[in-house]
Amino acid sequence: MSNKQQLLDYTVRLGDDALIIGHRLSEWCRNAPFLEEDLAVGNVALDFIGRARMLYTYAATLKGDGATEDDFAYLRDCRDFRNFLILELPRGDYAFSMMRQYLVDAFNVEFLAQLCQSKDKQLAAIAAKAIKESVYHLRRSKDWVLRLGDGTEESHQRTQKALDDLWGFTHELFEMDELETALASAGIAVDRSQLKDAWKANVSALLTEATLNVPEDDWTVTGGREGMHTEHLGHLLSELQFMQRAYPGLEW
Amino acid sequence: MATDSLDLFEVFIRSKRGLDHKHVGSLHADDHEQALEYARDVYTRRSEGVSIWVVKSSDIVSSQEEDSESFYDPMDDKPYRHATHYQLPDEVNNM
């Protein structure tokens, strides 16, 4: 595989991660627990969708042949998406969405700090912009995990359940494959396997503070980076892509 | 979750360094920390500010409409409290 193809594939992966979590968060728009939170979570969703646009636009220039950001977002099917599985899981209750967000934000801040050092100038520039957003996202989601974990009996129990249901999906965040290993040794991609210790230490400390039990590492689900998804991604895409599928080439 | 279990906060934003904080509106939040975050998300998303104050609405003491006679009317006949009441000597040009 050529270097350029590798860089393109990697950029699309990162774009997929941003698009899918951005879409899941956008589902809270007008459904959040109260007005202020609705606006706040909508802002976070927009940050991710903006991030997806930057990455897909860069991917489109790498691809050439007149491709646009929309081709990546709207005209690929499930098996072509390479996002982490944790991002595509249905939004669940607010405890589930905020717990996922916390686990992912804590990862993103570590990841983007490394991507800022990438030898690929464009990826480094996107990371430099994105990390400021992610630091704020983390502040918010951390706050929610503390409030809900150390809140009422019901909020505690729901937050613990969310954590237990999500934990097995977090291992994928640190799993490397051939493509990313090759790009990491070229100084372009981030070696995510190196991020796990810091992430686990930070996350465990916060979860303990939130009176939650850190789950055992006794199950794991992976496959997103190979295009092997849960049944939820297809449903998500059918909504996300509906307009372009029903009215190809439609413009606002 | 209903907002009636949350406190009301007033939000003040400083739009530029050197300017005063101005009241921009109010919002619901569980505590000051959360109020500050919501103020950021609700009132500064179009780069309106460089600094935010949040104050619990219940901590604000305001004058009452029925006090206005005793509060403000006595000032009506005291024009000498305004600088414009005085004739300036010509030597003082730019007041």
Notable features of this structure?
heterodimer; A: 252 residues; mainly alpha; Ferritin; 11 helices; globular; B: 95 residues; alpha+beta; three-stranded antiparallel β-sheet; 17% helix
Count of helix runs of chain A? 11
State the major sheet of chain A.
none
Structural class of chain A: mainly alpha
How many domain units of chain A? 1
Commentary on this structure:
The complex is a heterodimer of chains A (252) and B (95). With 252 residues, chain A is an all-alpha fold. Chain A is 67% helix and 0% strand. Chain A is built from eleven helices and no strands. In chain A, α5 (94-115) runs antiparallel to α6. The longest helix of chain A has 29 residues, at 35-63. With 95 residues, chain B is an alpha+beta fold. Helix content of chain B is 17%, strand content 24%. The mean pLDDT of chain B is 90. The A-B interface holds A 33-37, 39-40, 43, 136, 139-140, 143, 147 and B 1-3, 6, 27-30, 33-34, 37-38, 40-42, 45.
What's the quick description here?
The complex is a heterodimer of chains A (252) and B (95). Helices cover 67% and strands 0% of the residues of chain A.
Outline the fold blueprint.
The complex is a heterodimer of chains A (252) and B (95).
Chain A: H1 3-26, H2 35-63, H3 69-74, H4 85-88, H5 94-115, H6 121-149, H7 153-170, H8 178-185, H9 196-209, H10 232-240, H11 242-246
Chain B: E1 7-14, E2 21-29, H1 32-43, E3 51-56, H2 68-71
